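So, does this match?
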Amino acid sequence: MGKDGTQTKRAIMDAAERLVFLRGFAATSVDDVLSAAGVTKGAFFHHFRTKAELGQALVERFARRDRAHLERNIQRAERLASDPLTQLLVLVGLFEEDVESLGSEIPACLFACYIYEAQLFDERTLNIVAEGLQAWRELLRPKFEAAIRHCEPQRIASADELADLLLATIEGGMILGRSHRDATILPRQLRQYRNYLELLFARWIPAAAAGLVAVAAEK
């Protein structure tokens, strides 16, 4: 372990995150975390004064990773396509690829876990959850605004609604996947969301399709 305790702290947080995904926060005790991480109680309390402090650190880390992942995929979509509609279609396809690369593993969201047990957390921790979810709307809003502006949709839809729907598709797909123990549900739901975008912007799809062919050739 590193002299600064970084590796020990990471081991504690990694073990705790796995247990929270499996059991929930309330059912995960400090002793459970110690056993799973292979560390002593003294090591735990050197890094975290309480279980609540660990819980806040977990969601702060998750929020940073989640935002960074979204930003990377947006940047990849921008490199692969020039027009806003094609970028969005590529972006959803990148999320599909990410999930399919996990194989039989079904992803989970720490934000959802905390919302289900909101009574266990203080306002600061719940604000981190809210801000993490809001980040999806803020980062995706410019893309949807550009698509709506340049490619008139068939039905009335706001940029925020379309961004929220993508997040709802991902969160709901994870819940269904875990409920049914089926890793194919989330990527299939993402494909349906992509179908919805194609129908919404149907009159512009021929141009977007040409863009997707070019993206496939680059990849």
